[in-house]
Amino acid sequence: MKVPGIRSPHDKVGGLVYFGRMLDNIRLHARGELHPELHANLGEGFDKTCVQFLGLPYADIVAHVKGGASDDETLAWCRARGRQFDEQDAYVWNEFMRKRGWNDAASERLVQRKAESGLSAREDIQTMFDYIDADEERPPHAQA
To answer: Residues 57, 115: one domain?
Structure first.
């Protein structure tokens, strides 16, 4: 399903993958423009993992974003109030998230989601990020 206005989970804000996508979802939901299939995931799944990494409640981030803060302002706000993390922490976060679904506890869920979306034959979809991009009709992300 194409979802206008939501970036790939691979895209980084302030060096972190997924964070910008979470902010896109918050903003679209606040405007009543978020695809209904994505409502159940607000604050759950990868959002929950992200806010746990940041060390802040999801509701606090939502309130801040709804106040009109930019991506960079929101990340700076999170860093000032939540968990302190350095470049190495961000690297570990990025690699963990980028590889979710590849030979880990999320692998079974990835197989299930691919089947539900008619993408079971797509062997290039190896991770949850790959699945999200394919499901939202974005081209495969080039690995660095």
So the answer is: no
Burial of residue 31 (CB within 10 Å: 0-12, 13-18, 19+) is exposed
- Whole-angstrom distance, CA of residue 59 vs CA of residue 42: 10
> Do 74 and 7 have their domain in common?
yes
Measured CA to CA, the distance from residue 47 to residue 43 in angstroms comes to 5
Are residue 105 and residue 51 in the same domain, yes or no?
no
* Domain range for 107: 99-138
**CA–CA separation, 89 and 70 (whole Å):** 23
Say if 143 falls within a structural domain: no
Q: Distance (Å, rounded) from C-alpha 65 to C-alpha 112?
A: 32
pLDDT in tens, the chain (144 residues): 787 889 999 999 999 999 999 999 999 999 999 999 899 999 999 999 999 999 999 999 999 999 999 999 999 999 999 999 999 999 999 999 999 999 999 999 999 999 999 999 999 999 999 999 999 989 877 654
Burial of 67 (0-12, 13-18, 19+ CB in 10 A): exposed
